[in-house]
Each structure stands twice: as structure tokens, then as C-alpha cells.
């Protein structure tokens, strides 16, 4: 495993990209070489204030930045020439365009996000599930927020050594991220998609191909988080205490209790605000302890997923895996420590 600093560029500095960029800056084995912005908006101004080097997508855009008093270091091609690896966090579909037009011809390694189809990459990635499959790979896709959460939960329960017969997940999706003023619904509950299974089940299989999983999803007028209603059938009955122990002892899973005032995602968000978590990010799966119920061989629970931040630790681990810079557990523990996540075996206090 190497000791050089990995030079990373972030293309697409929105909800996911700005968080990944900040997370890279907290690591001692990688450096944020720069970010690519299309416009000199407040996101660019903040990046500039933070001292991050800004690049843009073409020579013709540089003047717009200069007119706003923002110095641009060059184009995406210039950034690539200074990087070992690119994290692409552009909107759905643009990652593929960038791969074909830029990353492949320039021969640069790239990480894509869950809005892209699985075929874009050699591996669809969740750290706990398949870190090793990403070792040395050229293209890796970090799966979507909901998929990341479901895969982490399945891996945590697999550690019990008890066969999982089938997984059923019903998802109330947040209608939009806080900044997405034009998305909805604002007064409806929308089957999203109306077809069954929703794409989440298929996406989980891009990481765990042998899981029997069906998912359904609705969109609700909320920006805070997704809420999953999970039903997992085991081959044999598993005790609640073993389930709780498995969840507590798995990194990136936080079990919250109603006795401490946690019965909704909004309360956990309030906790994150009060704790001074940057942007109130909660990259951990949030599992409501009192919902954990065993009926026959089946486990039921409620789980919240903070869509804006859950994939950030996975992006950091994917960088290390592709560069063969750390082993799975060294990377997971290092990432979690630097990002100040609730550590395994510890409670959220
Ligand atoms: P976003 O719209 O917040 O950010 C994307 C940014 O990329 C924007 O700032 C946009 O201006 C910029 N951009 C557009 N074209 C570009 C180009 N050619 N070069 C450089 N920048 C460009 O989107 P997001 O929510 O961060 O989503 C990014 C990816 O992450 C998508 O694949 C999405 O599916 C996935 N994802 C999103 C969430 C979420 O809840 N927001 C969660 C997990 C995964």
C-alpha cells in the first residue's frame, strides 16, 4: 500500500461534490487538487473563499469567472493533467458524457455517482460490501443514497452468520433536496416510480447480486431525509438483542432511541444541528431502535437516510481502493474518524 498523496479533482460541485471536496481536505493521504464549476455562483465564491483551486469546463467560461472576481486555474483538461483521479459528481447522465468525452481519452481514473447507470463503471461500490472489488479499478460508481443505506444494513445483518431469505423495503423518499425549489410534490404522495420493484432493488443487486429484494417508493413533501420501512426474512429466527448488537457494532450505522427523544428523522436532524455537525450532515444510517421488531423469522424496522451526505464516506474509501492506498478496514476507520462519524460500538452521545 502506497504512501504518496493522492491528487483528486472534483467535477461537479453541488450537493454531493462540495461535501466530497470538504471530506478530501480532511484526509492526510489525499489532496484536493481543484474543483470544476460551470458558473461563478455562490458555490464558486465559497470555494474561492476556502482557498480551493477552481477550474471550469471550457476556455469560453473563464471570462465569466474573471468578471465575478474569481480566479480560474484553467479548464477541466488542465485539472485532469494535475490529478491521479477524478470524482465526478455532476447531475445524472452528465457523468457518462464526461467519461466518453474526457476521462477515457485522457486515461484518468474516475468515480461516478448513483445517478449514473451501473454499466458506467467496473464496480458499483459500498465500502462495507465490496471494498476489495474496487482495488486498482479505473472506474467505480458509488451507488445512490438509498442503495448505500440498504446495502450497509444488509451487510450488518449478514455479519450475524444467519441466512437472509428475502428483503422488502418500502421507501418514503424526500421530494427534493433543500435547494431544489422547483421539485415536488408540495401537496401529494407520489408513487415514485409507480412500477414495482422500484430501481432501488435493482441497484442493490448491482452490489449484492444474490439478494432477493423488492422495493417500492413514494415521494413525499419533505427535504430532510428518506424514511425506509424494512422487512427482512431470515432462514431462522434471530433474537432482537443479536440484531441490535450487530447494528451497534457496524460502522456507519447509528441506532437512536425514543427515550432520548428520537422518533422522527427531523429530530435526528435537529440533533445534528445542535451537535454542530457541518451542514447538519448525517452520513450514518439512522435506525430507530424501538421499531426493531421480530415476528416469526422476520425483522421489521424504520431507517432514515440523509440523502445529501450518506455517500460521502464511500467516495473517500473508493478513492483509496482505486489507488490501493489502504485496506478495507483501515480506510473505513480512517474515513469515519476524520469525518467525525459515530464510531462502531459507540452510542451517538
Ligand atoms: P447537484 O445538482 O446538486 O450538483 C451537480 C453540480 O454539477 C451542479 O453544481 C451543476 O452545476 C454541476 N455541473 C453540471 N454539469 C457539469 C459539468 N459538465 N461539469 C462540471 N459541473 C457540472 O447534484 P447532486 O445532488 O450533487 O447529484 C450529483 C450526483 O450524485 C448524481 O448522480 C446524483 O444522482 C447523485 N446523488 C445525489 C444525492 C442527493 O440526494 N442529492 C444522493 C446520492 C447520490
Explain this structure.
With 349 residues, the protein is of the alpha/beta class. It has two domains: 6-143 and 311-338, 3-Layer(aba) Sandwich (Rossmann fold), CATH 3.40.50.720; 146-305, Dihydrodipicolinate Reductase, domain 2 (2-Layer Sandwich). The protein is built from twelve helices and 16 strands. It has helices at 15-25, 42-49, 59-67, 76-81, 94-106, 127-130, 145-158, 199-207, 240-248, 265-274, 312-322, 328-338; strands spanning 6-11, 30-36, 54-56, 74-75, 85-88, 109-112, 123-125, 139-142, 164-174, 190-191, 213-220, 226-234, 253-256, 285-288, 293-295, 298-305. An eight-stranded parallel sheet has the order 4-3-2-1-5-6-8-7, with helices on both faces. Strands 9, 10, 11, 12, 13, 14, 15 and 16 form an eight-stranded mixed sheet that branches. α1 crosses α11, α7 (145-158) packs across α8 (199-207) and α11 (312-322) crosses α12 (328-338). The chain is globular. Residues 11-17, 36, 38, 57, 89-92, 94, 113-116, 144-145, 177, 307-308, 311 line the site of nicotinamide-adenine-dinucleotide (NAD).
